[in-house]
Amino acid sequence: MILSDKDIKRYIDKGSISINPQPEIEGSSVDLTLADKFKRVVPNAPEVPEHEESTYIDPKYQQNIVNISLDDDMTFMIHPGEMILAATNEYIKIDGTVSAFVQGRSSYARMGLAIEIAGYVDSGFEGTITLEMVNTSKYPIKLYPGEKICQIIFMPMSSEPDVPYNKKKSAKYMGQIDPEESRIVDELK
């Protein structure tokens, strides 16, 4: 079951959902806006034999990240085939009674921008949403911070989990503010 605008407002009033700053709530999803910080993952190659490709991403090694912060009125260009990380301006907090999905807006998908490929938000999560964005078109796409970029859809849990995200030992993205790169390297050690 997906929460309607009426139910989302009720969950906000009782403290189960918090969105700061709080956007307009209507329909069955809430639009979230693009922040002004981005990250590019730059391939790494720890020890590459001569006969192998020299450029690749290896999840067993910490990734090389380029952090990009935009000044006011600047835009960000995502190039064809490029994957970047971005974040929402909105800080989300949900308790154990609700979980959520984040997905890109269809208006951007129709231009070739795939947003939030791994879009599940666990009950008990708190932080901004890191967006994985891929330009699937053959042309660069210009992104404007502050624009409505994705939507979050809330769902009630059938029961509260014994261990919500904020209580998990592996809650590596809890309280994130900026876009966060993969921390899978910690699991593969």
Provide a compact summary of the structure.
The chain has 189 residues and is mainly beta. The chain has two helices and eleven strands; from the N terminus they run αββββββαβββββ.
Primary descriptors:
189 residues, mainly beta, Deoxyuridine 5'-Triphosphate Nucleotidohydrolase, Chain A, nine-stranded antiparallel β-sheet, two-stranded antiparallel sheet, 11 strands, 38% strand
How does this structure look, described?
The chain is mainly beta and 189 residues long. It has a single domain, classed as Distorted Sandwich (Deoxyuridine 5'-Triphosphate Nucleotidohydrolase, Chain A). Helices cover 7% and strands 38% of the residues. The chain is built from 2 helices and 11 strands, in the order αββββββαβββββ. The chain has helices at residues 5-13, 106-109; strands at residues 17-20, 30-42, 64-69, 76-78, 83-94, 98-104, 113-115, 120-121, 126-135, 141-143, 148-156. Strands 1, 2, 3, 5, 6, 7, 8, 9 and 11 form a 9-stranded antiparallel sheet that branches. The longest helix has 9 residues, at 5-13. The model has no long low-confidence stretch (mean pLDDT 88).
N to C succession of SSEs: HEEEEEEHEEEEE
Number of domains: 1
CATH structural architecture: Distorted Sandwich
Oligomeric description of these chains: single chain
Annotate the secondary structure layout.
Blueprint: H1 5-13, E1 17-20, E2 30-42, E3 64-69, E4 76-78, E5 83-94, E6 98-104, H2 106-109, E7 113-115, E8 120-121, E9 126-135, E10 141-143, E11 148-156
Antiparallel strand pairs: 1-5, 2-3, 2-5, 2-11, 4-10, 5-9, 6-8, 6-11, 7-9
